[in-house]
Specification:
114 residues, 3 strands, elongated, disordered C terminus, three-stranded mixed β-sheet, 3 helices, alpha+beta
């Protein structure tokens, strides 16, 4: 079961925007992992949102910066990866070089929801 961790500064998103962002990230993960968009497959998709304090997001060692940032982590259990461990590097390289143009995530970035 793949899952998404989203870490943001407290107050970055309203709850409605947070829900929309996680829905879009889930769509993107399912697209890239070629997971069929079925109710059964969706039940296996997990996600967590972690909010950090307003002064707990550091840039250059300082919590005082103009543009707060967020982290999106996608995690896949090792046992479900199709490539063998010796091919992981090339698999990651191929995945990271894919164009985002066809991705559901590229239709609207999270910062454009508010």
């Amino acid at each position: 079961m793949p899952w998404i961790n989203l870490t943001v500064r407290r107050g970055t998103f309203t709850k409605d925007v947070q829900h929309a962002v996680m829905a879009k990230l889930t769509d993107a993960l399912m697209f890239w992992e070629k997971i069929p968009d079925t109710p059964e497959a969706r039940k296996k998709m997990k996600g967590w949102v972690y909010e950090v304090a307003e002064d707990a997001d550091y840039n250059g060692g300082s919590p005082h910066h103009k543009d707060p940032f967020y982290f999106i982590e996608v995690r896949l259990p090792a046992a479900v990866l199709t490539p063998s461990p010796s091919n992981i590097s090339s698999w990651i390289s191929r995945r990271s070089s894919c164009s985002l143009k066809a991705s559901p995530l590229s239709q609207k970035m999270p910062t454009e929801y508010g």
